[in-house]
C-alpha cells in the first residue's frame, strides 16, 4: 500500500510540474500585460500588485491594436462565413448527388490538404499583384477561403454522406427542390459538423501568419499576428506593451475555448482521428 | 423531351450550381498557383515582369550548389523526425494520466490543451523571452540551481537554437496529441484495460503490451500528421530567429520565403524551384508513409 501512495504522489508531482510548464508562460505573459516595462525590467517575475489596466486602453488608442483587432475580426469572420457556405454547398453536391467526375473532383480537392504552403504562396503573391489584390483585405480573405476550403469540404462531405437517405426521400415526397433540400435538411441536420469546421477554420485563420505576411504590407491592414510581430520588431525594448498586445490576440481564443470547449477540441482533432 | 430527361438535366444543373463557387475558388487560388509555381521554376523572373527561360538551371543549382538549401533540408528533417516522437509520446503519457482519473483531470486537460490554441507568433515571442540571456526563465532557473556555466543565449547559439525551437514547438503541440490519444483511449472497450489491471502487470508493461498496440493506428496517424506539419514549419522560426544564427534554424519554408521576399535577389523563379522540390519531397514522404503503414496494422478486437 505504501508503494501505491508513493507512486500516486510521484505521478501527481509530475503532472503538477507539467502544468506549471504549460500554463506558467501563459500566466507570466498575462501578468506582464498589466505591468509597465520599467517595472518588468526591475523584476521580470514579480506579480502585478498594482495592475495597470490602462495599458489595454493605450494599446488600443496609441499602438494601432484596435485596427489590428478589427482587421482580424473582419477578415476571419468574412472568410469563415464564405468558406462554410461554399464548402457546405460543394460537400452537399459530392455527398448527395451521383454524377460523372465526382470522384475526380473530390480527389483533386482533398489531395491539396497535405500540400505545403510554399507550392502556392509565391504564385499567389504574383496573382495578387496582377489583379490589384496585393495588400488588400479582400485579397487576404480570398486566400483564406481558398486555403481552408479543401479541409472544410472533406470534413463536411464525410458527415453529410452519413445523413440517413430516408430524410431525403421524405423531402422529395414533400416536393422539395434541390435548394430547399440543402437549406432545410443538409444544413440543419449537418449542423454539428458545420459548427466543428467553423471553429477549426476560425482558429486556423485567427492565428495565421504566413499568408498574411506575404499579402499584407500596409500597417492599417495588418491582422493581429502581423501587428504583434511588427510591434516586436519596432519596439524591442517595450516588453510590457508587447505582452499587452499578445493578450489582446489570445483572449478571444481563450473565451472561445471557455464557451465551446468540447466542440472546439472536436474541431481541432477532427482531421486527426480519421 | 420526356420527363426523365428533364429531371436528369435539372439535377445536373443543381450539381453544377452547388459545386461552381468552390471549384472557381479552388481553380483560381489553389490549382492555378500550383501549376504556375511549377512553370515559374523553369524561369528567372525579374520584378519588372521579365521572364528568362532557364530550363532546369534553378534545380541544378539548388541540388548541387546551394549549401544553405542543404542545411535547411537537414534542419527540417531533424525537426520533423524528432518532434513527432516528443509530441506523441508525451501526449500519450498525459492522456493515460487523465484516463486513470487523477483528481482535477478537467483542470489539467484545459491547462495542457490551451497552448494548442495560441497563435504561433505569440508562442514564438513567449519562448524568445524564456530563452533570453539576461532575464529569461531558463537561465534564471539554471542560475538558481548553481549551473551558471550552462547559461547562454539559447536562440543566439548555433548549437542550441534548433533544439530550443523544437522544444518551444512541442510546448504548443503536445496538448493536441494528448486530446486525440485520450479520445482513442475512451473508445477502447473498457474490458481490455480492466483485464490488464487484473493481470497486475506493471504500468510500463501495460503501456508497451496493451496500450501502444491497441492505439497503434491512432499513434501512427498522429506521428505522420506531426511529421508532415513539421515539414512546413515557418512561423515559429520566422518570428524568433529568421533562420539564424548561421542558418542553424533555417527550414525549407523560411529559406523559400527568404529567397522570394526578403533577399531582394529579385528572382521569383529560384524560390519557386525550391518550393517544387520541397513539394515533391513532402508528397513522396506522405505516399511512402501511408503505403508502409496502411491498414496492415488494423487490429481486431
UniProtKB/TrEMBL annotation, chain A:
<dbReference type="GO" id="GO:0055085">
    <property type="term" value="P:transmembrane transport"/>
</dbReference>
<keyword id="KW-0472">Membrane</keyword>
<feature type="transmembrane region" description="Helical">
    <location>
        <begin position="181"/>
        <end position="203"/>
    </location>
</feature>
<keyword id="KW-0813">Transport</keyword>
<comment type="function">
    <text>Part of the ABC transporter complex UgpBAEC involved in sn-glycerol-3-phosphate (G3P) import. Probably responsible for the translocation of the substrate across the membrane.</text>
</comment>
<dbReference type="InterPro" id="IPR000515">
    <property type="entry name" value="MetI-like"/>
</dbReference>
<dbReference type="Pfam" id="PF00528">
    <property type="entry name" value="BPD_transp_1"/>
</dbReference>
<feature type="transmembrane region" description="Helical">
    <location>
        <begin position="141"/>
        <end position="160"/>
    </location>
</feature>
<comment type="subunit">
    <text>The complex is composed of two ATP-binding proteins (UgpC), two transmembrane proteins (UgpA and UgpE) and a solute-binding protein (UgpB).</text>
</comment>
<keyword id="KW-1003">Cell membrane</keyword>
<dbReference type="InterPro" id="IPR035906">
    <property type="entry name" value="MetI-like_sf"/>
</dbReference>
<feature type="domain" description="ABC transmembrane type-1">
    <location>
        <begin position="69"/>
        <end position="260"/>
    </location>
</feature>
<keyword id="KW-1133">Transmembrane helix</keyword>
<protein>
    <recommendedName>
        <fullName>sn-glycerol-3-phosphate transport system permease protein UgpE</fullName>
    </recommendedName>
</protein>
<keyword id="KW-0997">Cell inner membrane</keyword>
<dbReference type="GO" id="GO:0005886">
    <property type="term" value="C:plasma membrane"/>
</dbReference>
<feature type="transmembrane region" description="Helical">
    <location>
        <begin position="239"/>
        <end position="260"/>
    </location>
</feature>
<keyword id="KW-0762">Sugar transport</keyword>
<keyword id="KW-0812">Transmembrane</keyword>
<feature type="transmembrane region" description="Helical">
    <location>
        <begin position="107"/>
        <end position="129"/>
    </location>
</feature>
<feature type="transmembrane region" description="Helical">
    <location>
        <begin position="68"/>
        <end position="95"/>
    </location>
</feature>
<comment type="similarity">
    <text>Belongs to the binding-protein-dependent transport system permease family.</text>
</comment>
Automatic annotation (TrEMBL), chain B:
<feature type="transmembrane region" description="Helical">
    <location>
        <begin position="77"/>
        <end position="98"/>
    </location>
</feature>
<dbReference type="Pfam" id="PF00528">
    <property type="entry name" value="BPD_transp_1"/>
</dbReference>
<dbReference type="GO" id="GO:0055085">
    <property type="term" value="P:transmembrane transport"/>
</dbReference>
<feature type="domain" description="ABC transmembrane type-1">
    <location>
        <begin position="73"/>
        <end position="289"/>
    </location>
</feature>
<keyword id="KW-1003">Cell membrane</keyword>
<keyword id="KW-1133">Transmembrane helix</keyword>
<keyword id="KW-0762">Sugar transport</keyword>
<keyword id="KW-0472">Membrane</keyword>
<keyword id="KW-0812">Transmembrane</keyword>
<feature type="transmembrane region" description="Helical">
    <location>
        <begin position="12"/>
        <end position="35"/>
    </location>
</feature>
<dbReference type="InterPro" id="IPR051393">
    <property type="entry name" value="ABC_transporter_permease"/>
</dbReference>
<dbReference type="GO" id="GO:0005886">
    <property type="term" value="C:plasma membrane"/>
</dbReference>
<feature type="transmembrane region" description="Helical">
    <location>
        <begin position="273"/>
        <end position="293"/>
    </location>
</feature>
<dbReference type="InterPro" id="IPR035906">
    <property type="entry name" value="MetI-like_sf"/>
</dbReference>
<feature type="transmembrane region" description="Helical">
    <location>
        <begin position="110"/>
        <end position="131"/>
    </location>
</feature>
<dbReference type="InterPro" id="IPR000515">
    <property type="entry name" value="MetI-like"/>
</dbReference>
<keyword id="KW-0813">Transport</keyword>
<feature type="transmembrane region" description="Helical">
    <location>
        <begin position="210"/>
        <end position="228"/>
    </location>
</feature>
<comment type="similarity">
    <text>Belongs to the binding-protein-dependent transport system permease family.</text>
</comment>
<protein>
    <submittedName>
        <fullName>Multiple sugar transport system permease protein/raffinose/stachyose/melibiose transport system permease protein</fullName>
    </submittedName>
</protein>
<feature type="transmembrane region" description="Helical">
    <location>
        <begin position="170"/>
        <end position="189"/>
    </location>
</feature>
